[in-house]
Design goal:
The complex is a heterodimer of chains A (296) and B (137). Chain A has helices spanning 27-36, 65-73, 82-91, 96-140, 149-164, 189-194, 204-211, 253-265, and strands at 14-18, 21-24, 42-45, 58-63, 78-81, 196-197, 215-218, 226-229, 240-244, 251-252, 269-275, 286-293. Chain A is an alpha+beta fold and 296 residues long. In chain A, strand 1 (14-18) and strand 2 form a beta hairpin. Chain B has helices spanning 2-6, 9-23, 54-67, 91-100; strands at 28-33, 41-45, 78-83, 88-89, 110-116, 122-129. The chains are: A alpha+beta (296), B alpha+beta (137). The interface between A and B is large, with 39 and 34 residues. Chain B: Belongs to the SEN15 family. Chain B: Residues 17-137 form the tRNA-splicing endonuclease subunit Sen15 domain. Chain B: It comes from Bionectria ochroleuca. Chain B: InterPro entries: Sen15_fungi, tRNA-endonuc_su_Sen15, tRNA_endonuc-like_dom_sf, tRNA_intron_Endo_cat-like_sf.
């Protein structure tokens, strides 16, 4: 797979706000967010016929509102009111970009099909040719005593084959055949900019964790708001289960005991955190406390 | 005992924790500090090191493996905050407790929360300031 990175030429990852949910439909955007903004989100896309098979969820990914806000705050992504943007794009008379994109897709499909047909023909021709040339030596060689040069020939020829054959992923039509998950060609950049919104509620702890390079996933399975990972959740176990509180919000000691006890039992620490409004803006004014059983 | 009952709940749980530390956990030099307008804090020396950061522990094990000398074994003074499970605290109050801990040089990285249950069981939790990764227990 080719590595997608955020580049000056590429617009910021687009978060679609639909019915109060924050979704990322573009696989490249999702990849950039995960790789460069330590935000993995939750896969929520499913097949209409198998909505309960949540082992196989795919795009889009859903972000929590405060997660989206943290990204916007750090200028790592933008949130677009997707319904309004689509309506504006569909109603506008200027659809040349969209029509062009359809033409481009069509041309790509033609090219890929032609390439595949050519490849198939080449393979068939190769097979036929090999059969003829191999007819004599194959008959001469005994099956239980293969020639020692066979192995050498295999290894010698292998790099040459891979070097000469074009990798499918490198061709411009690498994702042809994949059902498109985003309609980015429909909506022009200008229309997109027009419908950018920044009304996601602020979460100081989410900002703090995002800023600190931590990944988060929903913490419900451990009875907290966030499970906090020191890196990609595919590589690491969570280190913390974190809850956010207001600076003067009452926290029952019993909750701290429960959290500390549960977290220690699953080899984590229980984190409580919040922002001190007298000390400026999140994430700088966020204070966190980690709780674990003392072992005595 | 009659005198104890007459006292307020805070000094009662403080006294319970002091006794628990001295009698059950063999802490020494246990003393109660009363800050101005603050909850009393207990300072004491545990018989063994109460906490080693996981990174320090790995480094100490490596050091012991290569040189045979054990590091980070000497106990440190700890600060204990006695609380009752029925209480409600806020982040700002916890922050003010950390601010009030007396220190020479480095600021206290943690306090120990001594929770006194109604059956006088005392359970201790470490309360670290900041995100401190869990120990490999």
């Amino acid at each position: 797979m080719t590595t997608v990175t955020a580049s000056p030429s590429r617009p910021l990852p687009r978060i679609s706000k639909i019915a109060g949910r924050y979704l990322v439909f573009d696989h490249e955007d999702a990849s950039i967010l995960r790789r460069e903004a330590n935000t993995n989100g939750s896969l929520v896309g499913t097949l209409p016929q198998q909505p309960t098979q949540n082992m196989f969820l795919g795009l889009p990914i859903e972000l929590r509102p405060e997660e989206a806000e943290a990204l916007v705050h750090k200028n790592l992504a933008r949130v677009v009111d997707d319904v309004a943007a689509h309506q504006a794009a569909l109603r506008s008379s200027d659809r040349t970009a969209y029509i062009q994109s359809l033409r481009r897709d069509k041309a790509t499909a033609h090219k890929v099909l032609a390439e595949r047909a050519a490849q198939k023909a080449a393979v068939a021709a190769d097979k036929a040719g090999r059969k003829k040339s191999k007819a004599k030596p194959a008959a001469a060689a005994t099956p239980n005593a293969p020639a020692p040069s066979d192995g050498d020939a295999l290894f010698a020829s292998a790099p040459a084959v891979t070097a000469s054959s074009p990798r499918v992923a490198d061709s411009p039509m690498d994702n042809f055949g994949v059902t498109p998950t985003s309609s980015r060609d429909l909506i022009s950049a200008d229309v997109d900019r027009e419908f950018e919104v920044s009304d996601a509620p602020e979460g100081p702890l989410a900002r703090y964790l995002q800023d600190g390079g931590y990944h988060t996933t929903p913490g419900l399975r451990f009875g907290s708001k966030y499970s906090v990972y020191p890196g990609d959740p595919l590589r690491f176990h969570a280190h913390f289960m974190a809850n956010q509180y207001e600076w003067d919000e009452e926290i029952p000691i019993l909750d701290i005991i429960e959290g500390g006890r549960l977290a220690t039992a699953v080899k984590k620490a229980f984190v409580i955190g919040g922002s001190d409004p007298s000390k400026g803006e999140a994430p700088e004014n966020v204070t966190t406390y980690s709780i674990e059983w003392a072992g005595m | 005992m009659a005198q104890l009952l007459a006292e307020d709940p805070v000094s009662q749980i403080t006294q319970t924790v002091v006794q628990n530390l001295e009698d059950q956990h063999d802490w020494t030099s246990v003393e109660t500090h009363h800050g101005a307008g603050q909850r009393p804090l207990i300072k004491g020396l545990p018989p063994r090191r109460l906490y080693i950061h996981p990174d320090d522990q790995i480094a100490a094990l490596d050091h012991e493996h290569s040189t045979g000398v054990r590091l980070h074994q000497e106990p440190e003074f700890e600060w204990v905050l006695p609380v009752h499970p029925a209480e409600k605290w806020t982040l700002s109050r916890i922050a003010s407790v950390f601010d009030s801990v007396e220190h020479t040089g480095e600021r206290a990285k943690r306090i120990v929360l001594g929770t006194v249950h109604n059956d006088s069981t005392v359970v201790y939790y470490l309360l670290h300031e900041g995100l401190v990764k869990p120990r490999q227990n």
